[in-house]
Amino acid sequence: MGMDFSTLRSLITRYCVGEETWVDSRTIYIGHKAPPPGTEAFIQQRYPDNRITSSKYTFWNFVPKNMFEQFRRVANFYFLIIFLVQLIIDTPTSPVTSGLPLFFVITVTAIKQGYEDWLRHKADNSINKCPVHVVDNGRVTRKQSRNLRVGDVVFVKEDETFPCDLVLLSTSRPDGTCFVTTASLDGESSHKTYYAVQDTKAYITEEEVDSIHATIECEQPQPDLYKFVGRIHVYMDSEPVSRPLGSENLLLRGATLKNTEHIYAVVIYTGMETKMALNYQSKSQKRSAVEKSMNSYLVVYLFILISKALVNTLLKYAWQAAPERDEPWFNQRTEAERQRHIVIRAFTDFLAFMVLFNYIIPVSMYVTVEMQKFLGSYFLMWDDDMLDPELGERAVVNTSDLNEELGQVEYVFTDKTGTLTENNMEFIECCIGGSVYVPHAICNGQVMSGAGMDMIDTSPGPSARDQEELFFRALCLCHTVQVKEEETVDGIKLGIHQGKSTSFYISSSPDEVALVEGMKKLGFTYLRLKDSHMEILNRNDEIERFELLEVLTFDSVRRRMSVIVRAASGELFLFCKGADSSIFPRVVSGKKDEVKARVERNAVEGLRTLCVAYRRLSAQQYAEVCGLLSEARLALQDRDKRLADAYDRIETELILLGATAVEDRLQEKAADTIESLHKAGMKVWVLTGDKMETATATCYASKLFRRTTVILELTTKRTEEQSLHDVLFDLSRTVLRPDLSSDLGEFSDFGLIIDGATLSAVLRPEESNCGNYKDIFLEICRNCSAVLCCRMAPLQKAQIVKLIKMSKEHPITLAIGDGANDVSMILEAHVGIGIMGKEGRQAVRNSDYALPKFKHLKKLLLVHGHYYYIRISQLVQYFFYKNVVFMFPQFLYQFFCGFSQQPLYDTTYLTLYNISFTSLPILAYSLLEQHISTDILKKDPSLYRDIGRNCLLRWPTFVYWTLLGVYEAVVMFFGAYFLFDNTTFTSNGQLMTSNTQMMFGNWTFGTLVFTVLVFTVTFKLALDTHYWTWINHFVIWGSLLFYVVFSLLWGGIIWPFLNYQRMYYVFMQMLASGPAWLSIILLTTACLVPDVAKSVLWRALWPSTTEKIQVLAGKRYRSSLHLADRLYQGHLADFTPLTSLRSGLEQDQHSRWQQEDQHSRPTWCGPCASALPRTSP
């Protein structure tokens, strides 16, 4: 049979969802009804169900998938290979020695990840099985959420959450609107207005809704919460009617219905295709500098391990070259094994040595680091100093992988509005035609006098009066503010015009609320939007109604919004408000110079300004406007671009009315925080979309710029006068040439201001004769203590962060912001911080850490970041150090056992050394250590410089720790060897030392070395501990006690499950000898003395700022103990009153500190000295 395969292919393409040729749009049949005959073919497409899956694993794939992910880590994979080698070939140690630690690490991680995924499964099931109401055959039925299908008509009641993405068909409100909160999506708690389709909003019963005959064409799912493009075709008796669909018609999954009794809506996107699910995508993995250092050290130790194994393999065959030193008989090698090729034997021996020395790679370090980061993050979340009582919010840790990175920050990029400022707007004044109006200028109908400004006049000229009222009406109409009404005790809803404060304004923009409230103070009150009519109450207590015809919404590119309204007289107005840079070029008349002067003056004072303009429209012009908007809104392709073009053509030939000024106050302690960051050596950049004058005033108020700062401008205004090339080279000469800098002052402090347009030119790919502007720009920025970037788009913020992040120094960057426009730079920076502000929670959701206020950044970096870095750097160095001390005696031992791969330590000691004997002390240290008190770190930000540039994990420090481990290993091994070198044979053939009368075999020798090892590394950590708590005491001394008790039990009892027990009675026999005790004490002391001597010598000759403070803290503590002792003995008469005593001590402390080197540490005040911690000197 001959079948046309092209026909088969087209059928498959047409009917199989996964093979659709059209990928840009989809067609939905409302109620699954076929369109009328002759319109189009009815193709019932298949879409995913409404099941949400946030879990990572299933019951069947958990083990293989989790194992695959864990063994992708280099350390885990390495130990797996070692374990397999031990199973395959004859190795000197049992496979248990590698398998048990690996099994412990893998099991703990798998349990943690499995538990987290089980919680996700539970959450998914609770959502997927939630009941929803669906209109089916003219009645409402219930089904589980997971069974919803695209095209179903859903019935949602007030306060219910939308189960999927829906297009609104009709509501219980006569105007076809509903109110929704999207707090779970973007954190905005304000009520947003959504609109039903114009031709279906009249269908308000189940039967009527079920009779709707329509199809929807819309774009395929995409994650942008604020974008939706589609159109609906409603089939009437005649031709179908097409209407545009936008984001104002789309109800998103996770949003909640408010102040609306019920709605009917059709399902558009389900399950993992909903916008909320598409935003589940994980952020790119960020790695800290400490983690990179760990990996570098791991490579070095892997090289050391391979070198050890290679050297021992070569020496073994060199040793066995002589006939009398051939393979010993007791190794029980078969003749076939003896006759194997030398290459195979050498390779097998090499692998055996690798297994013998493999413990130099600390696999348990990764588990300890993970636990330290996870548990350490709770100290940040529990910190009461970072609790905001007003918001009731604490700091939130979204990822603990970057804790130590908080102690390495070099550049801070911050947003302005809502981050440095409160984003709590207050209307200050407005300027109408050059006259300034202040809300508080009227008191009981009387005009208050003002200094040097025009006030509201109760009897202005007719033209001025008309202009004034038109301005007030413009601000009362040009907005998206909603009126929230509350019921009184008798159940009657009262409006603002009735004189009772039972209503208030809500909006997603604080600026709009401030402007509407400001107009209310000036006599024009916005009442409500009802039946597409906006009502305002004028100063004569008369209600005016304007029909709202069109809203040209605000966007960050246009930086303006407009409304088209029809007055009761039939006149058509277009009112427009926006930034001065977007309004002035479109103005054709009005007092532009006067208004512009006032705008610039207000901007210099740090006020946020907006300009207001209008245009009268004729009926013909309005018809043209409607045509432009309708054509753009019905487009499925490039709708946003077409709408932008339409708005641009409509918002022209404007008449300027005036401008407004709104104040956004600085957040509490914002200036103090920025000053502290400067003292800590960090460079602070402000990235904002505001105009330059406003942002500059905020920078001066927040102490980013000081009065002595030399301001350098790289702005459009300057590049219009000079070429960009010349401006850049002028600035570079200013900041780099010492002769020019000296003219400006001995220590010139530069600040740079750049705007978005100039930045685009700088970052533009270099042209043939333009040179590399980017490098010059970076060089200028490096020599500026602060940089202000104004008029920045969100993408430009991320570009700036990436530019600094990828520069040759590779500095650690931090970005902090509160709004959706800050998400890009938060994701780009090494550390991203979200502020719990008033612009939604998108920044918080996408950040690594979330803070209630900007002021909390100070403690986050200067205290928590400092502690995190100190703790984890010590943890990493200590782990490598203690494993060198552990394994180097094993290497030396091979020179005394004929390179026979004989282990020095018992298998149990090999297994438990990193898991039990030495793990808890370093974990407790890495969680609790405070080398300097919290108060000192906050009061002296310069201490942050001491740990900058990853100084504690640099190669010299790493080499010192490694050499210290080698030294201690040599002392332990050869100390034990020479103390017991005088030996004789006993009657039963055992070796016995003549000077100790102790039976001395290889296991006794190894146990002695291991005992010294455990005590040495534990005492080393105790000596490094400055902050002692009962937990430190418990784990340090408890670990030593556990080792002794375990060794006594392990060697003192015959365990029935062991085939052989080579450690039987070894430990007790060793401890029964007095010289063995002396050896342990002497060798432990000999190991620790050089490190202690080095620390004392360095502290005396070249003390760091931190060490100076620790010395002063010790003196302060001892003097307080002496004082308390004298008081206790009753010598009260010897003392002055406590207040004068405190003052004297403070003065004495202050004078001592003033004698210190001013360049090495800052001067301290008395109260700061009294806050010094109780630390050991």
Keywords:
magnesium, nine-stranded mixed sheet, ATP binding, Phospholipid-transporting ATPase, 39 helices, disordered C terminus, alpha+beta, 1177 residues, 18% strand, EC 7.6.2.1, ten-stranded mixed sheet
How much of the sequence lies in strands comes to 15-25%
Total count of strands = 38
- Which quaternary structure do these chains form? single chain
The first-to-last residue Cα distance is 96 Å
SS-based class: alpha+beta
Low-confidence parts lasting 5 or more residues at pLDDT below 50?
1-23, 442-459, 487-501, 984-991, 1131-1177
Rounded to the nearest angstrom, the radius of gyration is 38 Å
Q: Mean pLDDT score, rounded? A: 79
Tally of DSSP helical segments: 39
What global shape is seen? elongated
Helical percent range?
40-55%
Quick one: biggest sheet? 10 strands, mixed
Subunit structure: Component of a P4-ATPase flippase complex which consists of a catalytic alpha subunit ATP11A and an accessory beta subunit TMEM30A.
Membrane topology: Multi-pass membrane protein
Protein name: Phospholipid-transporting ATPase
Subcellular location: Cell membrane; Early endosome; Endoplasmic reticulum membrane; Membrane
Structural description of this entry:
The protein is α+β, with helices and mostly antiparallel strands and 1177 residues long. A hairpin with a 7-residue loop joins strand 24 and strand 25 (560-566). Mean pLDDT is 79; it is low at 1-23, 442-459, 487-501, 984-991 and 1131-1177. The strands form eight sheets. Strands 16, 17, 22, 23, 24, 25, 26, 27, 28 and 29 form a ten-stranded mixed sheet that branches. A nine-stranded mixed sheet has the order 14-36-35-34-15-30-33-32-31, sandwiched between helices. A six-stranded antiparallel sheet has the order 3-2-4-13-5-11. The radius of gyration is 38 Å and the shape is elongated. The longest helix is centred in the C-terminal third of the chain and has 38 residues, at 856-893. It is an enzyme of class 7 (translocase). Its main location: membrane. ATP binds at residues 415-417, 512, 554, 577, 608, 688-690, 791, 797, 821-822. Residues 44-98 form the P-type ATPase N-terminal domain.
